[in-house]
Write a structure and sequence with these properties.
Pfam families: NMO (PF03060). InterPro entries: Aldolase_TIM (IPR013785), NMO (IPR004136). The protein has 323 residues and is α/β, with parallel strands linked by helices. It has two domains: 4-209, TIM Barrel (Alpha-Beta Barrel); 225-285, no CATH class. Helices cover 41% and strands 15% of the residues. The protein contains 14 helices and ten strands. The protein has helices spanning 4-9, 26-34, 49-60, 82-91, 108-113, 125-133, 157-167, 181-189, 199-202, 211-219, 242-252, 258-261, 267-276, 299-322, and strands at 15-17, 38-42, 68-73, 96-101, 117-122, 138-142, 172-175, 194-197, 225-228, 236-239. The strands form two sheets. An eight-stranded parallel β-barrel has the order 1-2-3-4-5-6-7-8, surrounded by five helices. A two-stranded antiparallel sheet has the order 9-10. Strand 1 (15-17), helix 2 and strand 2 form a beta-alpha-beta unit. The chain starts with a helix and ends with a helix.
Length: 323
């Protein structure tokens, strides 16, 4: 398959593994690259810019194909040294960056000067248009089905992706609810140039997370995610467990504040969960596509299956319907 994204990123397949904190490490990203897709390391998984440089170098020992780095820009009281992370990305010769959170505008001059293409994750058309206006090469559109922070508008991918295609002049990548060849074929039909997946790549052999998490995803249905932080206008979609249900219940209490749930949702607890396999220890991110995860394949087999199934749908089923 050749699309604007495969040509732009110099990859074989229009399939992207989005950056996932504590998950997108060298083992995962290199396997995605070797399968002919595009993988993104998570910059902030590494505690320091120097350690990010080491992780980029470690990834290059496992693949000679293209991969990128995700730089998520969050509003915090004590922000990480974002410019230092960005400089490490540039110095390492990375040519594509996935940004998320706040606008990448402050970093565009340094990325542009280094010839780095920026793909910004957006949850609304207005944010996508802003990303285009500041010079992003493409946007990833996160529908309401997506894990993480799907925004406050609650617009699903079936509407949001074609709306973005209609409004923008740069390529659109579809994210949120995509996990297989049917999803890839649908995204291409909607006008997207690729799909980006997180939850589906989380449930692969190369993902460095506990097997208990993968077993949970295989057993899950489309009903097994939970929205939290709605009260605080920072909606997040996570897997439904005792902790996320407790957080949602606390939010319903009159006068509750984020400080009331903060101990339950700490990143430290989530990180421990991924390692120990105690699936009730904290929250963990998962999208509604959990209901379409049925096995734990190698990444090579997963990407091959997605692309082959999409090609079959396009060439045979849809062609036969038109005939």
């Amino acid at each position: 398959m050749k699309t604007a994204i495969t040509e732009m990123l110099n990859i074989e397949h229009p399939v992207i593994q989005g950056g996932m904190q504590r998950v997108s490490t060298a083992e995962l990203v290199a396997a995605v690259a070797n399968a002919g897709a595009m993988g993104f390391l998570s910059a902030l998984t590494q505690p320091t810019p120097a350690l990010l440089a080491e992780e980029i170098a470690r990834t290059r020992t496992m693949t000679d194909k293209a991969f990128g780095v995700n730089l998520t820009i969050l509003p915090t009281l004590t922000p990480p040294p974002y410019e230092e992370y960005a400089q490490v990305i540039i110095d390492a010769g990375i040519k594509v960056v996935e940004t998320a959170g706040r606008s990448p505008a402050p970093f565009m001059p340094m990325f542009n000067a280094a010839g780095v293409k920026v793909i910004h994750k957006c949850t609304s058309i207005r944010h996508a248009k802003k990303a285009q206006s500041v010079g992003c090469a493409a946007v990833t559109i996160d529908g309401f089905e997506a894990a993480g922070h799907p925004g406050e508008d609650d617009i699903p991918s079936l509407i949001l992706v074609p709306r973005a295609v209609d409004e923008l002049d740069i390529p659109v990548i579809a994210c949120g609810g995509f996990s297989d060849g049917r999803g890839l074929a649908a995204a291409l039909a909607l006008g997207a140039e690729a799909v980006s997946m997180g939850t589906r790549f989380l449930c692969t052999q190369e993902a460095q997370v506990h097997q208990n998490l993968k077993d949970k995803l295989v057993a899950a249905s489309e009903l097994d995610t939970q929205l939290i932080f709605r009260k605080f206008k920072n909606t997040a979609r996570v897997f439904k467990n005792s902790v996320s249900l407790e957080v949602a219940a606390i939010e319903q209490r009159e006068g509750s504040e984020f400080s009331d749930v903060a101990p339950l949702v700490s990143g430290q607890r989530g990180g421990e969960l991924l390692k120990t396999g105690d699936m009730e220890h904290g929250i963990w991110w998962a999208g509604m596509s959990s209901g379409l995860v049925y096995d734990v394949p190698s990444i090579e087999d997963l990407v091959k299956r997605i692309v082959t199934d999409a090609e079959t749908i396009i060439k045979q089923r849809l062609s036969a319907i038109v005939s």
